[in-house]
Amino acid sequence: MSSEERYRFLLENTSDMVFHVRLREPLPLRLAPHEQVDWIYREAFFVAVGDGFARWHGYDRAKDLAGQPLGDVLPRTADNEAMMLRLVASDHRLAQARTEHLDRAGHRKLMLVSIAGRIEDGCVREYDAAARDVSERATVADALQEQQRLLASVTDNASLALFLMDARQECVFMNPAAEQMTGFTIDELRGRPLHDAIHHTRPDGSPVPLAECPIDRAFPSNDRERGEDVFVHKDGRFYDVAFTASPIRDADGKPVGTVIEVQDIGERKRAEAAMHASEARFRNIFDHAATGIAFTDWTGRFLECNAAFSAIVGYTEKELREIAFADLVHPDDRAENLAAVRRLMDEELPFFEIENRYVRRDGAPVWVQKFVSLLRDESGAPAHLVALVTDVTDRRRAQLALAFLSDLGTALAPLSSPLEIAEAAARLVARHFDVAHASFHGAGADGAALAVLGGAEAVGDDGRLAERLGDAFLAQLRAGGVVAVRDDEVVLLQEVAARVHLRLERARAEAALRDRERRLRGIFDSAFHYIALLAPDGTVLEANRSALAGMGTSAGDVVGTRLWEAVWFSQRPDERDRVREAIRRARAGELLRFELDYRRGDGSDGTVDFSLSPVRDERGEIVLLVAEGHDVTDRKRAEAALRLADRRKDEFLAMLGHELRNPLAPIRNAVEIIRLVGPKEPTLDGARDMIERQVEHMARLVDDLLDVARVSRSMIQLQKGPLELATAVRHAVETSRPFVEARGHRLDVVLPREPLPVDGDFARLVQVVGNLLHNAAKYTDRGGRIRISLERAGDGGAAEAVLRVRDSGQGIDPAALGSVFDLFFQVDHQLDRADGGLGIGLSLVKSLVAMHGGRVEAHSEGRGRGSEFVVRLPCLPDEPQTQAAPKATAPPKTARPLRVLVVDDLRDSAESMALLLEMDGHAVSIAHDGDEAVARACAERPDVVLLDIGLPKRSGYDACRAMREDGLADALIVAMTGYGQDADRRTSEAAGFDTHLVKPVDLPTLRELLARRARLG
User: What is the CATH number of domain 634-694+889-1017?
Assistant: First the structure.
């Protein structure tokens, strides 16, 4: 139960006349006694009374007294005023008096009153009192006893904690409020010093000596002690209190005890601390706020302002106290400001916000934004004005500048001529800055003559700005200084100049762009290529003149249609599908180029080199497709003609090889016949050997020539496989040795012991090595030296086989080293070089080596210093199963004579071959055309047919087919021809030939074929 509830309970249940009085305004204790009494009778009113008190004064209900002034019930009689003065004398702690009263019926009654006040923050706020009717009591003893009872009633119901100490300073009494405050009961403290229970320790834990205890000093000093301190509760917590310790004296004035009044002021302390913190925060905000803050009285006289406000207006706080708020306002803005203040005073506005100008102490205007509020006193009368002021000069200037720049941009936007732009900008600048004249000048780097932009009049007689402004002024301007203008105006002028410059540049750029667009349009329309611009879906947006003219159509016929539906492809359904697919792929970001057939404007069919390119915007999205085409009909026809010519060239080379080999065949056959039947005479043997060498030379030339032709057309197919390179080198050396030794050269061969496996075509690698050896032998004078070596270079996957062929011959001019592998290149063009070749051997070497993944190099220190050719081929990582080299075998002996049909339209070739075969014991017949060959074969049933390809009446291919069809399925049919290309071999195989030999036929090979056939039976 709260104290208020307890008090009301007592009022309702006690038989005494109890009442509670409150002061409207707290009574300051600093007033004089009579002033305090006057205050009490003026401000006191009843809050609550007991029923007994109400009835005693003639009221039916206690609540009828609630709110009535004290003087209406207890008039200011002499007795009552004396009682009040005693109360003031006791510092409103406790007073007792017997007074006479008239009730509402006019009856005089005697009442004993005890009254005590509640003091807080140095002021009395309310009183508790009890009274008893003592009208019928006759003796003073009864009155005193009643007074004691009344006093006990007051102490028990008082909100102050009351303690009574005897002369030994031991506690003899404490009221319920004291028990509640301390946590102790009277039984726990009776006979103990109060100091030991509630004032023995400070909050920091240090003890409080008894000599320093203020509540115990009143008795020995015989004087009242007041103050604030910290007491200790029974549970150990500390709390703030205000106390009064008053000595009790006997009739002789001797102290016999002490009365101690204690009030818990914890809430007040916390409120004071919060108030002090709030005041400190406010003062900190006030002093350091960036916003100006000013307080004035209600008339506008300055009371206080912060530093920010003084900085805005340029006055010190002391100077502001001498003027009124209205004195700061610009004369042009005072009426508006005063009207707002009046509305505030008339309570039309809770506050007002306004922007106007102040006049600073230095006379300069400053734009401010103000929030003004009115503070009123308790009665509602105007008391103070509070103004929050912000300097918005820069913002206002910026707003004006932005508005000016907006107007400038609006005015210049539709203009395209640099002259119009400069003139319009100058007019707006002059109006904004309120000047008579403005113009824009383009300044050179040296600051000399400044050209006037627009039609403005030039400054000075000759347009030299420096003469008008002066060198120093102009130099200061260029250095960025401020001359007779504010910084913000300089910034604005700089921004204006920059914007006008950009607008002028843009106007020039737009003019240049229009000119560029005209030029591009001219290029687009006059371009020889067909060009069309397409939407991503393939819709034709634009086509140039060439594209339209090429089709004999107009833009109206194609613009807006899909490209594949346009007249270019309307007659070519197959090409329409290709174009549609190409547009789909280009729309996905692919760049395409291919050839298309189309219908030209003259109705003829043509071919176009067609491309589609996607064009992306800045976000990477495809927004346009560019279709380009170049009519390549003539080129295609030329290419077809070239292919035809190339095919005819191949046919010519094949025919040339055939025609060159044909004469060699009877020559070789004749030499072999002479060798077999001629006498063993050295001169004849030498002539025969010479003929054999020349035949071999001619055969090699023909083979090289045809191989070069096949390499150039990528018609050679390598039969590659793992092989031991040293084996191929040995085979080439043995094949070439007779040619080398015939020229009297010394040949040194250096081969490694470890294997050098490579992936290659055995025959072609033998050909490479043989060509290098023949080349060295031909270009080395008789008796020279040739060295061929093979070695490994590098390790692992980077290992290479390095072949070197070095000679002591005529050497190569360093300037010619880069050309020695070119087709038909000859180092020496002298007519006396009888052994000179056609310049195709080394070219063939380079091509074959490259086909094997290798490279070849030529080195020479110059003419007469010899040459070295180096071939590098990649090695295989492991030792492979290598191709076996063909073994040289002695001419085989035929197991039995064979019936052989020799067919050749060249009689010398046929007859010489027949003679050789007859000398080997075979039965030979001859035919000279295709029909005759088929007839003899069907009639004679030969075991072997040696059949030429190029025959009169019927080709060798047709003759072979006819023979196979007429029952010669088991016969060995050999193509023996001057046609030796791979395609020729495939054709002969398809026609039914068992094998294909190239003229001049290698006789050992032929004899081996015949012997194998004879052994088969």
Answer: 3.40.50.2300
Q: Interhelix angle for 841-851 vs 762-778, to 10°?
A: 150
- pLDDT at position 932, please? 92
Supply the DSSP symbol for 591.
-
Q: Do the Cβ atoms of 294 and 389 come closer than 8 Å?
A: yes
pLDDT at 22 over 90: yes
Superfamily grouping for domain 530-631 = PAS domain (3.30.450.20)
Q: Which residues touch 70 (CB under 8 Å, ≥6 apart)? A: 21, 40, 41, 44, 45, 46
What amino acid is encoded at 333 in this protein? D
Q: Which residue has the tokens 């009022």?
A: 11
Helix (H) or strand (E) holding 38: helix 33-43
Asked if 133 and 146 touch (Cβ cutoff 8 Å), the reply is: no
Give the angle 210-216-221 at the CA atoms, nearest 5°.
Answer: 120
Report yes or no on whether pTM surpasses 0.70: no
- Structure-token pair, residue 666: 């009877």
H/E segment holding residue 295: strand 292-297
For residue 1000, say if its preceding peptide bond is cis, omega within 30 degrees of 0. Answer: yes
- Cα separation, 155 vs 591, whole angstroms: 109
Q: Torsion over CA of 494, 499, 502 and 503, rounded to 10 degrees? A: -140
CB 528 within 8 A of CB 441: no
Distance CA 314, CA 328 (A): 10
Find the radius of gyration of the CA atoms of the chain: 67
Superfamily, domain 3-157: PAS domain (3.30.450.20)
- Separation CA 208–CA 205 (nearest Å): 9
- Helices then strands, counting H and E runs in the chain, come out as 32, 34
Q: Are 982 and 717 in contact (CB under 8 A)?
A: yes
H or E element: which one contains 764? helix 762-778
CB 1000 within 8 A of CB 665: yes
Among 404, 370, 409, smallest CA distance to 390 is for 370
Angle at 511 between CA 505 and CA 514, to 5 degrees: 140
∠ CA 562-568-570 to the nearest 5 degrees? 75
β-partners of residue 724 are: 757
Other beta carbons within 10 Å of 469? 16
What is the spatial distance between Cα 800 and Cα 854, in angstroms, rounded to a whole number?
9
Strand pairing report for 899-903 and 867-874: unpaired
Is residue 27 a contact partner of residue 123, using CB atoms and an 8 Å limit? yes
Whether 289-391 shares its CATH topology with 634-694+889-1017 is answered no
Closest CA to 876 of 753, 752, 760, 758: 758
**522: how many CB neighbours lie within 10 A of its CB?**
10
Query: 161-270 architecture in CATH?
Result: 2-Layer Sandwich (3.30)
Interacting residues of 29 by C-beta distance below 8 A, sequence separation 6+: 36, 91, 92, 119, 122, 123, 124
Tell me if 780 sits within 8 A of 809, measured CB to CB.
yes
- Kindly report the three-state secondary structure assignment for every residue of 216-244: HCHHHHCCCEEEEEEEECCCCCEEEEEEE
Which residue is it, tokens 């010899």?
866
- The tokens for 440 are 């824009």
* Dihedral pair phi/psi, residue 259, rounded to 5°: -100, 125
Per residue in 870-908, pLDDT (tens digit) is 999 999 876 545 555 554 444 455 457 899 999 988 888
pLDDT score of 454 more than 70: no
Six token digits for residue 253: 């004035």
Average pLDDT, the chain: 80
Residues 52 and 15: beta-carbon distance below 8 Å: yes
% residues pLDDT > 70 (the chain): 81
What are the residue boundaries of the structural domains of the chain, listed by start?
A: 3-157, 161-270, 289-391, 397-511, 530-631, 634-694+889-1017, 717-874
**Two tokens at 863?**
């003419």
